[in-house]
Design goal:
By secondary structure, this protein is mainly alpha-helical. The chain folds into two domains: 6-437, no CATH class; 445-510, no CATH class. It contains 18 helices and no strands. Helix 7 runs antiparallel to helix 8 (185-210), helix 9 runs parallel beside helix 14 (380-404) and helix 10 (260-296) packs parallel to helix 13.
């Protein structure tokens, strides 16, 4: 097996994720213009969040955390990886078919659990209708996640990373068609959900077949390997459930303020850009890489991968967090304020974005630290840590809601994320050398933080100078581009000057050994 080239692979996944997030921005900008933060927008966002929530529960955030390390080790050792993948594919498909049917029938209860504040108005009925149309998406996208895990273990990150791009492009096309032909926009978006699921599954299945893994579902059977997979996956599934409870608490808090579900969703889209490009990309690459290195007994290689991944995450995430806090208002105004999305919507979305921005490094560091556990098939400790964070999240969100309103949901998410990072870091101290920071990381980390804060000062000054341009319709895009450029140039210039990094570190082809 060819080794995974860590930085190049992260850049590949990050690049495709950036393209996907860009298309996602276009999708959300169009949705904000067509629907604003009104009842149809809120109903669709809740309905679409249901299959996505359970997708993370069953596949990306849980099942795959157990499947990918086991599959990667079987692939490295030549221990019938195809048979194992086929059994896992069939078992997951069987569970999801039953769950999809039950979820569709129970949609009113699911919507109430997600947003009880909708009860008694049109948002509730619309969310039930849209949810029933799109809930089958969970079946297709969860199988896509498993097939993507197969591709990632082979070091084939491009195909799996293209899947979200495909989804966003299909949403954009559907809204353009609905606007042109006068179709009902809410129903068009709802029907687009299962259609994109089928398209994503077909593409990923074709990509997996090209590497010799054309998985065809059969009647599920409980093999010893599959039984071990479920035993390892069970705590991760429970941890995924805890994370979704956190989201439920946030949405419940938001549902009692009209428009808040949409404000949080639009803010979430903005902070998900750096989270996806950096955090998810690193986690996607690091998990199979660490798993294969552990199977091969390569402790030094595992330590290098962990340190370079953490360093890369810090170098890109901390300045992004500072930027989301400092320029939250112009970001939301330029990107979303048009049509049905007014100034009050912009101000509220910006408040949520700043709260999420404070937690962005924590969200990313979780993606770096979790593979240390999952690569060792240790899913129990992350579950225990997640339970603690669930209690903290609920206490903060519910406790602060009467004081600061819907922003309590975003702030609770941020604070509980930092608690999770602290627990993951503390728990990893007893692991081997793969989990230890090296001299290069310790030397560079504080310089990266310093460069990011210096960039924040530059951004604040540039925002003040460009204020008139940012408030002018014909010039606001240029103003935002200049503002972001000032931040990027200042960060990399200051960072390179004080030794936080070398600019060559960010080249996709970087494969040399650390200093």
């Amino acid at each position: 097996m060819k080794p995974i080239r860590l930085i190049r692979s992260i850049m590949v996944v990050g690049g495709w994720t950036l393209l996907s997030r860009g298309a996602g921005f276009a999708r959300d900008i169009m949705m904000a213009a067509f629907l604003g933060a009104g009842p149809v927008a809120e109903a669709f966002l809740i309905a679409f969040s249901l299959p996505n929530m359970f997708r993370r529960f069953f596949a990306e955030g849980a099942f795959n955390m157990a499947f990918v390390p086991m599959f990667a080790k079987k692939l490295e050792g030549g221990e019938d990886p195809k048979g194992f993948a086929r059994d896992a594919f069939s078992g997951l498909a069987g569970i999801l078919i039953v769950f999809s049917l039950l979820g569709t029938l129970a949609m009113p209860w699911l919507v109430w659990a997600m947003a009880s504040g909708f009860a008694g108005d049109e948002r509730f009925d619309l969310a039930v209708l849209y949810g029933r149309i799109g809930f089958s998406y969970i079946l297709f996208i969860s199988l896509v996640a498993l097939l993507s895990g197969v591709l990632n273990a082979f070091g084939r990150f491009t195909e799996a990373s293209f899947v979200p791009v495909l989804m966003n492009l299909m949403f954009i096309a559907s809204m353009l068609l609905a606007n042109h032909f006068g179709w009902d926009m809410g129903l068009t978006l709802a029907w687009t959900v299962p259609v994109t699921g089928v398209a994503q599954f077909a593409f990923t299945w074709w990509a997996a077949s090209r590497v010799g893994f054309a998985l065809v579902p059969s009647w599920p059977k409980m093999t010893p390997e599959l039984k071990h997979l479920f035993i390892v996956a069970a705590p991760a599934v429970l941890a995924g459930g805890v994370i979704q409870i956190n989201l439920l608490v946030g949405r419940q808090v938001a549902s009692f303020t009209e428009g808040a579900v949409a404000w949080l969703s639009y803010a979430d889209r903005l902070y998900q850009l750096p989270l996806g490009v950096v955090g998810i990309a690193i986690g996607t690459v690091l998990l199979p890489d660490l798993s294969r290195r552990l199977r091969a007994g390569d402790a030094q290689g595992g330590r290098d991968s962990f340190n370079r991944g953490t360093e890369f995450a810090l170098a890109l995430t901390f300045p992004a967090a500072v930027a989301l806090v400092v320029i939250a208002m112009p970001l939301c105004a330029v990107l979303f304020q048009r049509g049905a999305f007014g100034p009050d919507d912009t101000a509220n979305t910006a408040m949520a974005l700043a709260a999420y921005g404070l937690g962005l490094p924590a969200f990313v560091f979780q993606k770096v630290l979790q593979p240390l556990y999952y690569a060792r098939e240790d899913t129990r400790r992350p579950f225990r840590y997640a339970v603690i964070c669930m209690v903290i999240n609920a206490a903060i969100a519910i406790g602060l809601m009467p004081v600061i309103g819907f922003v309590a949901a975003a702030l609770a998410t941020t604070l509980s994320a930092w608690v999770m990072v602290w627990q993951l870091w503390r728990g990893s101290r007893g692991m081997g050398p793969e989990a230890q920071f090296d001299d290069r990381f310790r030397t560079r980390s504080w310089r990266i933080v310093l460069a990011a804060f210096a960039m924040g000062v530059v951004l604040f000054g540039a925002m003040t100078m460009l204020g008139p341009m940012l408030g002018t319709d014909g010039l606001r895009y240029l103003g935002l581009a200049l503002l972001i450029s000032a931040g990027i140039v200042s960060y990399f210039a200051i960072g390179a000057m004080i030794g936080a990094f070398r600019l060559s570190d960010f080249k996709a082809g970087l494969t040399r050994k650390p200093n």
